[in-house]
Design goal:
The complex is a heterotrimer of chains A (208), B (135) and C (144).
Chain A lengths: L1 E6 L11 H10 L6 E7 L9 H7 L2 E10 L2 E6 L3 H4 L11 H10 L3 E4 L9 H8 L7 E6 L6 H12 L2 E5 L11 E4 L7 H10 L3 E4 L2
Parallel strand pairs in A: 1-2, 2-3, 6-7
Antiparallel strand pairs in A: 1-8, 3-4, 4-5, 8-9
Chain B lengths: L23 H11 L4 H4 L1 H6 L9 H15 L4 E9 L10 E10 L4 E9 L5 E10 L1
Antiparallel strand pairs in B: 1-4, 2-3, 3-4
Chain C lengths: L2 H8 L3 E8 L2 H10 L5 H4 L31 E11 L8 E16 L2 E13 L5 E12 L4
The chains are: A alpha/beta (208), B alpha+beta (135), C alpha+beta (144).
Chain lengths: 208, 135, 144
């Protein structure tokens, strides 16, 4: 099963894509993904209900978040009520250690994204201050990467033994499905996704 | 030239690509009347002194160029809304590529929504956006 | 920087009003610069001659930010949303009214950024709403 793990809709300040339009695009362009995760910036969108779209298009739509930490931006999968009360998703300066630890405690999982990106990725921060305990997975393929950013992320993963995921970081409809993650098992829910990520059997894939 | 017919269009259809002229000569012609004659747009050296990699194309010109791309594809169409995000500078004297694709159709008012991008020579997205166009 | 206090003080505040007398030549030059080719945008003698859609982004208020607004760092244009309601013609006299419609912060490749959204509403000499432009300005406090 292939899931694109990093996307934004109009719920994000810089997102311009309606979720229905992502679905239409995936079907019309035969984008080879089975589903995607909406990781809105600095928030968890608890209100939107995409079940009708899932049924209509046969596409799995999951929800996560992209929060901002002292080590750059971090995707959080498996967000639940406990985690929403564990830290303030809107802050720009969350300690990565806290996000990782609290996610683990609440049954979620934190994945630093676009690590090779200046300031908002963890590579330079690790270089400067060392790795953060508890990080086990990073995003090694990001659809918005420039230059050597993905290469730097992969080098970081190799050095520290991190597993790697892929996500498009789409903000407009036509950018979905640029990168994704292939899992050997079936995933039906956020809980399944967290379990699959913990198992460590997956690979980042790219079509760009 | 006749434009595309609304009924024939489908989500996923691509508009013809366009390579805009962003030469220094062209930028200087633009910035005077637009009241934007700042060094960061018209002088590579002055732009570098500001910490930029070179002179940059004004964002509003990028937006205007993308609107022009839509009109070249669909002459006579009416752009109801165009929203552009300037994610990274487009450099003057570079060779960017403008692209657009249909991402939605609204039968009720015969409008289409399109994605818009300007990428640099490395294929990196510098400007992205959307527009709603009445055909 | 207390963002909530900044928002409470400035968001929603109308702070500028400016008149613009538009010449057909001004409209033509902009359209040509953008690579427009249709006579309705580049030929002032065309019966439907009008401004290219994003022309209004060149009409700037007397002030970008209200008087007394704090210096938040070096400003950059982060994007523009233009909603068009009616054609703008050569000879039109527009009034542009400005307000701050949102302030928010995030971190980007350049470090911490504060976004200020400047909304400008344009009406013509018949008081018809012709366009609304949202300008998102990035301010980088570390680059003051």
């Amino acid at each position: 099963m292939i899931l694109d793990l990093h996307n934004h809709s109009i719920k994000s300040d810089d997102g311009r894509a309606k979720v229905e339009n992502y679905c239409q695009w995936i079907r019309r362009r035969e984008v080879p993904i089975d589903g995607f995760v909406l990781t809105e910036h600095r928030q968890f969108d608890a209100d939107s209900d995409y079940r009708a779209l899932e049924d209509s298009f046969g596409i799995l739509i999951l929800k996560g978040s992209e929060v901002e930490t002292d080590y750059g931006h971090v995707l959080v999968f498996g967000v639940n009520e406990d985690l929403l009360h564990a830290f303030d998703f809107t802050r720009l300066d969350l300690p990565l250690a806290t996000v990782v630890r609290e996610s683990e405690r609440c049954g979620a999982i934190a994945v630093p994204c676009h690590p090779g990106r200046t300031r908002v990725g963890m590579c330079a921060h690790v270089e400067e201050r060392g790795p953060v305990e508890g990080v086990g997975i990073i995003e090694v393929l990001n659809g918005g990467s420039r230059g050597t950013e993905d290469h730097d992320a992969q080098a970081l993963a190799g050095k520290h033994g991190y597993a790697g995921i892929g996500g498009s970081d789409a903000h407009i409809v036509s950018h979905i499905g640029r990168c994704a993650t292939r899992f050997p098992r079936r995933i039906k829910s956020e809980e399944d996704l967290v379990a699959a990520l913990r198992e460590g059997k997956y690979e980042a894939v790219s079509w760009t | 030239m006749a434009g595309p017919s609304f009924d024939d269009l489908e989500v996923g259809d691509e508009l013809p690509e366009f390579k805009p002229d962003v030469s220094m000569e062209r930028i200087r012609l633009f910035v005077g009347p637009s009241g934007m004659a700042a060094g960061r747009f018209t002088d590579h050296e002055a732009a570098r002194k500001e910490g930029l990699p070179g002179a940059i194309v004004p964002g509003i010109l990028s937006a205007g160029i993308l609107a022009g791309l839509i009109h070249r594809w669909a002459p006579g169409s009416r752009i109801r809304q165009i929203d552009t995000v300037f994610r990274a500078p487009v450099l003057v004297d570079s060779h960017p590529l403008c692209r657009s694709v249909v991402t939605d159709k609204d039968e009720s008012d015969r409008t289409v929504e399109v994605d818009l991008t300007i990428t640099n020579e490395q294929g990196e997205t510098r400007v992205m956006g959307t527009a709603r166009v009445e055909l | 920087m207390d963002l909530e206090a900044l928002k409470a003080e400035w968001v929603g505040l109308d702070f500028d009003e400016k008149k613009f007398d538009l010449s057909a030549e001004q409209l033509r030059v902009f359209a040509v610069s953008c690579g427009e080719e249709e006579p309705r945008f580049i030929d002032p003698n065309d019966p439907d001659f009008q401004a290219a859609p994003t022309f209004v982004t060149t009409l700037r208020s007397a002030r970008v930010l209200p008087s007394g607004f704090p210096n938040l760092g070096r400003p950059f244009d982060a994007g523009k949303k233009v909603i068009l309601h009616a054609p703008i013609r050569g000879g039109d006299q527009l009034i542009g009214r400005s307000r701050i419609s949102d302030i928010y912060s995030k971190t980007g490749r350049g470090g911490p950024m504060i976004f200020v959204v400047h909304e400008m509403e344009f009406r013509n000499q018949r008081d018809e709403l012709v366009a609304v432009v949202d300008s998102r300005q990035i301010n980088q406090p570390e680059a003051k």
